[in-house]
Amino acid sequence: MSCAVVAGAVDLLMCSDDAVGRGGVRFPGWMLPTVVVVLSGVLLLRRRRPRLVFAVQWSWGLVGIVAPHTAPFAGLLVALHAVVARRPWRESVPAAVACAVPFGVATVNAAAVSPDAPAAAAVAATAWAASVVTTVALGRAAHQAARRAALLAELAVREAEAARQAERLRLARELHDAVAHTLSGIVVQAATARVGLPGADPFATLATIESQGVRAMDELGRLVGVLRTAGPVVGDIEALVADAAGAGTPVLLEVVGTPVALDAETGLVAYRIVQEALTNARKHAGPSVPARVECRWGRRELVVVVRSGNPAGPEREDPLPSSGYGLRGLRERVDALGGRFHAGPDGDGYAVRAELPLTSESGQVPV
User: How far is Cα 306 from Cα 150, in angstroms, rounded to an integer?
Assistant: First the structure.
């Protein structure tokens, strides 16, 4: 609005008190100032309708043809700036060139009343040309700034959407890792009690199912809380192995090297690797098939290996269904950390191996 007010004030100053037009035509003294005020109000529409406002101001710029002592130009320059700032370059250039007509009329009128017509014409033409070039430059700069702002806003929207997608993926992985592991254990325990395997204590099996169900509820509660609490870490692997042993799976844990404190994400990934591998071992090999968990601590990486054997009997003639998301999710987690992941047959069994880099956040503090 301030530009419209300033342009109107300047154009009012450019209205001559001489109300006599070309050919002796006389205008009422209020006529030209009133038109200037009205057209200054039209400038308020320049952001929404820049081409229409420019056309109106350009037409008013030709008033010098009938009123040679009047040379309005400020409103035309403001309208030109709006066109250049908001319209494509292919529309801005013709608008700038079109300004030569009203400014040419003003130049001719200035030369007509000057003792030195050529010099007056040259000065006037240079001034008008400089005004147009400066206006186009400022408008173009505003156009580029607006375009950069729009691109940055679009980029921010895309980044926010990518962050939301990543968060949804992370929650999906957490949900799978937290719940699928426990539910698979419950199903295996229930199947063990149903078929009455030798040496199976039904009361101990029910107690294990109960404890695993409670753990699943705790994990779900943590996820509902948008994972605000700290998740499992590498130090919880020992408890995970103990739970698997309590569920009837013989598991040996071997730690080589000196454990160090890990950042939260690396520790969680190490825990999930062991959790998923032991779950798959119970699901596909059977609850009584032994497994071995190895954590090898090096100076630059932590190597986690989980090996399980093949079933000695027909325990898993009806293997439990698998979604296939577990190992795929682990590979994505490890890749995101810059590590290496492999899962496949290993001799007479199956092995899951992950090499997790120790980041700069990892200190030399025992876990």
Answer: 51
At residue 210, the 3 state secondary structure works out as: helix
Q: Are strands 340-346 and 349-357 parallel, antiparallel or unpaired?
A: antiparallel
Q: What is the pLDDT of residues 222-273, one digit of tens each?
A: 655 544 445 567 788 888 888 888 777 888 999 999 888 888 788 888 988 9
CA dist 47 and 363 (Å) reads 58
The two tokens of residue 17 are: 């008190």
Instruction: Give the model's pLDDT for residue 315.
Output: 45
User: CB neighbours of 15 closer than 8 A, spacing ≥ 6?
Assistant: 32, 33, 36, 70, 72
User: Is the whole-model pTM more than 0.70?
Assistant: no
Q: Where are the alpha helices (DSSP H) in the chain?
A: 2-13, 31-42, 50-61, 74-86, 89-98, 100-112, 117-175, 181-195, 202-224, 237-246, 264-284, 325-336
**Nearest CA-CA partner of 6 in 74, 83, 99:** 74
Report the distance separating Cα 184 and Cα 117, nearest Å.
Answer: 98
Q: Report d(CA 194, CA 73) in Å as an integer.
A: 95
Q: Which two tokens stand for residue 192?
A: 């063990």
Provide the residue type at 162 as one letter. A
What is the tens place of the pLDDT at every residue in 37-75? 787 788 888 888 888 988 888 887 777 776 767 777 788
User: Hey, what are 245's tokens?
Assistant: 């042993």
What's the rounded Cα separation, in Å, for the pair 279 and 287? 9
- How far apart CA 38 and CA 44 sit, in angstroms, is 11
CA 128 to chain centre: 46
**156-357: CATH class:** alpha beta
Measure the CA angle with vertex 38, ends 37 and 43; round to 5°: 95
| 239: nearest Cα among 283, 277, 271, 199 | 271
Count, residues in the chain:
367
Query: For tokens 């820049």, what's the residue?
Result: 50
C-alpha–C-alpha distance, residues 307 and 24, integer Å: 107
Residues 6+ apart with CB under 8 A from 153: none
